[in-house]
Amino acid sequence: MTSPNPLRGDIYWIKMPKFHIVGSEQYKRRPWAIVSTNTITATGMIVAIPLSLKAHQQNRLFKILVPNSDIVYEAGTTLIPGDRIALTHQVRALSVERLELPRAGRLTDNALYAVEAGLAFVLEIP
């Protein structure tokens, strides 16, 4: 299997087994957007945020709408087109070994900036 070369803004499928989860952390197979710098992947790690199709009413400040028009889909991807919700309060460090190849898509610069703003809010970064 080829090794992934993930970049900031890329979207990959990741399957998070339920036995790795505590409380209301995200699990199952879902798309994740990479928010870490490109240089960190040399360590074999990424920082990513899960993407969801549904927005629950609680904690709406932490959830950033990513319109379908701000997602560039890879040819042949199984990622269903539609608006997504970036769950910035669920940010997580992950091994690149969790990434399913091929890449599912990519966020536009506008979407990445919005997700970064949500992440800055969650981390209280001015």
Could you characterize what this model shows?
The protein has 126 residues and is mainly beta. It has a single domain (10-122), classed as SH3 type barrels. The chain contains 1 helix and 8 strands; from the N terminus they run E-E-E-E-E-E-E-E-H. Strands 1, 2, 3, 4, 5, 6, 7 and 8 form an 8-stranded antiparallel sheet that branches. The radius of gyration is 14 Å and the shape is globular. The model has no long low-confidence stretch (mean pLDDT 89).
Contiguous uncertain segments of 5+ residues: none
Our count of helices gives 1
Which structural class fits the helix and strand makeup? mainly beta
How would you characterize the largest beta sheet?
Answer: 8 strands, antiparallel
Please write the string of helix (H) and strand (E) elements: EEEEEEEEH
Assembly classification: single chain
Q: Which whole number gives the mean pLDDT?
A: 89
> Domains counted in the coordinates: how many?
1
Brief summary of the model shown:
The chain is mainly β and 126 residues long.
Write the layout of secondary structure elements.
Layout (H helix, E strand, L loop, with lengths): L9 E7 L11 E7 L10 E8 L10 E4 L4 E3 L10 E4 L4 E4 L3 E9 L1 H14 L4
